[in-house]
Amino acid sequence: MRGMTVLAPPLNNKYRYFALVLIAATVVTFSSITLNYRNALNAAENSLELMGLGIAVSLEATLSRMQHDRETLFTDIITGGQWEGIAFLALCDGQGLTLLHSNPHLRNRRIADPQIREVSSKGTPLHAYETLGTGEKVFLMYFPVHIPGESGRSGASRQMVLKLALHTYPAEKIIRQAGTQAGLITLLLGGLWLTYYFLLKTMKHSDAMARVISEREKMAVLGEMASILAHEIRNPLGSIKGFAQYVSEQSEAARGNRARVKESLDTIVSESNRLELLTDDLLSYARPERVITSRFELGPLVHEVVSSPEPPGGRGGEFSCAVSIPEGLRMTTDRDKLKQILLNVVENATAALQGGKNINGRITIVAEPADSAAVRIRITDTGRGMDPETKKNAFQPFFTTRAKGTGLGLAIVKKLTESLGGRVELESDVKLGTTVSVVVPAEYRGLQGK
Ligand SMILES: Nc1ncnc2c1ncn2[C@@H]1O[C@H](COP(=O)(O)OP(=O)(O)OP(=O)(O)O)[C@@H](O)[C@H]1O
Ligand SMILES: [Mg+2]
Fold first, then answer.
1. Distance from residue 376's CA to the centre of ligand 2 (Å)
2. CATH number for the 290-441 domain, one of 3.30.565.10, 2.40.10.340, 3.40.1000.10, 2.60.120.200?
3. Number of CB atoms found within 10 A of residue 343's CB
4. How far, in Å, CA of 450 to CA of 446, rounded?
5. Which residues, chain by chain, have CB under 5 Å from ion ligand 2?
6. What is the pLDDT of residue 157?
7. pLDDT in tens, 181-217
8. What's the whole-model pTM score?
9. The domain 176-285: what is its CATH number?
């Protein structure tokens, strides 16, 4: 694993979706806050306008009814507190001459206010904002009025303009409320973004940790594999080397014991075979599987398995082996892989019988249709069975209880069966023996949805 670098993978999709949702929520929330704030501004202005119009209409009616004491009316309104929202009141003629004012000192003054001329000439009300000398911002309402008998002192026209200034603070309450609401929502969103930031940091950290752990696990498996390999290879290699040296010395001496030389050569061949098998097993386990399908009948395949060089029942045929496969049971899957699976299971059954005390050892291979168009192949032996610990670990690579086993047999069985879209089931009892069921789809359709 020299020179191995662990690259940080691109940001996981789940983080991106979360960020997108948060961005969408932020955009929607800010749009609605803006809209809400604008509505509040409009509502505040509308309420001032309505209030101004109401006061103006009512004042026009009062002034029309009054024949005397008009001069003190506006002052009385302000000091009497009749309408709390009014800052000041004025009645001007079309030229801007103040005829009446709530502040008596400002009466009979001419003010240069273009709005007065405009309202007087157009005859429609108008509103505007103005900042007073006190620094207060007021809402101004210019309202055209007709007041009988108020034509004259200055020779002004009968069309007059009522100018009223309203305090804006009651209406500003609506705006303040909308502002506070907007502030709170912004704070909440800020909190959400902050949470997302820390969540992202934590998730990235835990992802990195998971990667490190998985790398470590991989390294641990590799290390275990290397030590088992070293151990497994060293023994046959030692024998091969020793016997090769012996044969060489004997042939040099040219008068060696022929029988001894033959024995040594046989050992060299059998130990080399062991090494070959080990490397085959390792490759079967480590290589990614490519499924090559063909249509075949199951019966003949099982017969090939039971008549292999290492037949079930042992070389000497000490045990009986019964096969029961329905005739014409055909499958479309990878024939070689299925054969390798069955060979491994049958080999284990044979080994279990050899190791057991059962003198009436028997292996039974039965095939039957299983759930959803699958075929179940049951390999039962009456061998020594597995204790709970062995049963728990049987499918783990390199787990073995046999002196010459590599512990890859059942791991390969599981891996190959799964590559065919199937599963392996195991029943075992130290008194009764073991049944391994290989359930494989009769028609291989890839591994979609597995
Ligand atoms: N039919 C069986 N009866 C009893 N024990 C079994 C049987 N099959 C497997 N086992 C147990 O499970 C262990 C793992 O089996 P597996 O086939 O993976 O490895 P192995 O047979 O020991 O070695 P290998 O198959 O690699 O030569 C065996 O060592 C044995 O203890
Ligand atoms: Mg085995």
1. 20
2. 3.30.565.10
3. 19
4. 9
5. 348, 409
6. 44
7. 889 999 998 998 999 889 888 988 998 999 999 988 8
8. 0.54
9. 1.10.287.130
